[in-house]
Amino acid sequence: MILTRRALLPVLAVIPFHRTAPPEIVPQAKPPKKTRILFGGDVMLSRHVARLARARHDPASPLRDLAPVLRSADIAFVNLEAPFSDRGRLMEHGMIFKSEPEMVAALEMAGVNIVSTANNHARDCDSYGVEFTLSWLQQHGIMAVGSAATAEAAHAGIIVERNGLRFGFLAYTFDQSNGNHKDVDNRIASMDVATMQADVARLLTHSDVAIVSMHAGAEYRPHPNRQQIEFAHAAIDSGVRVVVGHHPHVTQPWECLDNGVIFYSLGNLVFDQFQRRETQHGALAEVVFSGKTLESAALLPVDIVETVPRLSAESRKSDVAGPSSIASR
Q1: Which domains does the chain have, with CATH numbers?
Q2: Can you give the pTM of this predicted structure?
């Protein structure tokens, strides 16, 4: 018997039809966002640096060549080695530094987000300079860490939010007087291991990553001293992920640990020290976080030509300078 299509219709109507459920789609977790931070060493916008900027009619000139590099980072950090002040004469010589207010254009143009103001030149313009510097930086959208209106605020640190994460910064100095003051200004955070550990513990209650800046070491020495090593290791042991150092005016080794990285000294970034070859070469430290995880760290060599830093040929050619191990702790 031949069944026609019309004859099949009643048969098909009684055959149960089971619809196959579509496969369950499990949403894949998005990879954590990466945050790239660049750290620079000593930025001194006074003396011959300012004189050359005036001759160029460009207060931003000290960082103009490096600006694209710094601006490419999610966060750019440097040590501000000279306070700002709108009082007194130009400081063109000597060891008392004073940055003229217009020189903030260099930091602003280069996209520097945060500076350490805890260093041995912090009080070069006295109490007024401490206050003016903080106010002037704030007016230009630049955060300061290491000094503040009160001691409590100086030790509270600064939080910078990027890519949904809170990066907490603290900064300390081994000296705040530059040989000019016998008293202590507690608005500037001094290096003390126990105090730093307590500060870090408080900071980590409301931040995801802790970073510490230290102004310490012997000038022009190629290796860190015991104070630098002990302070930096204590910070890492307390939960800090990155320790960045400055003051020696020359670069020093950096060290990768299981739970963090230490850059003992990045040397100069903007300075007028022409008397030594080593002081005319510095470095940028680059760290990349994947979420809260420290994914990579690198050192990018910098050449300083007539006070103006630029990435060295070595940085442009290759990837990074590798870390050095520190034998003693």
Answers
A1: 33-317 (3.60.21.10)
A2: 0.88
